[in-house]
Amino acid sequence: MIIINNVLALFLLLMTPDSTQSVAEAPLPGTDAPRFWASNLDGTDFYLSRKVGDKARPNEKKPVVLSFFTTTCIPCRQEIPFLDSLQAEFPRVTIYLVNVGEEPQIVKNYIQKMQYKLPVLLDRYGQVAKKYNATITPTLVVIDTDGRIVFFERGFRAGEKTKIRQEIRNLEDVNSSQK
Description:
about 180 residues; alpha/beta; Glutaredoxin; 7-stranded mixed sheet; 7 strands
C-alpha cells in the first residue's frame, strides 16, 4: 500500500503544472519563432516558413501576428475585435487567430456568429500552442519578417491596446523600410 501511495504521489507531482516554469519558458523577444504547419479554417495549408524567415516566399513575406484563442475565452472576445481593427490599420502585417483544441465546426460557427474577418488557423491538438508555450488564451505573439519574436504577451488587458498597436506599427514601419 505504501508503494502504491508513493507511486501515486510521484505521478501527481509530475502531472501538476508548475506555473513558474511555464512563465520562464515563454519565448523571449529576439528568439526565433518556432516553425509550424496548421490548417486554415477554409481547409488550406499554412506554413509559417512561407511567411517569415530566410526561406519565406518573396510574394508572401510579411510580419505575422498570432493570437491563440478559444471560443469560450472571455478576454479573447475583447482582444479579437481589437486585432480585427489593427489588421485594417496595418495591412502590411498579417494577423492570424490560432484556435487551440476545438472542433473545426465549432470554430467556424463562432467566427461566423461573431463576424470576425481575420484568418483562422486550427491547432486541434494544441501542438502549435505548446511550441509557443501559449498556456492561456489569449496569447499574442508578434513575429518580424526575419522570423524572430518581437513581442509576446499572455492575457489581454484593454489598457495595453496602445502598447500592442505600437508594437505592430513598429513592425510595419520596419517592413516597409526594407522594401
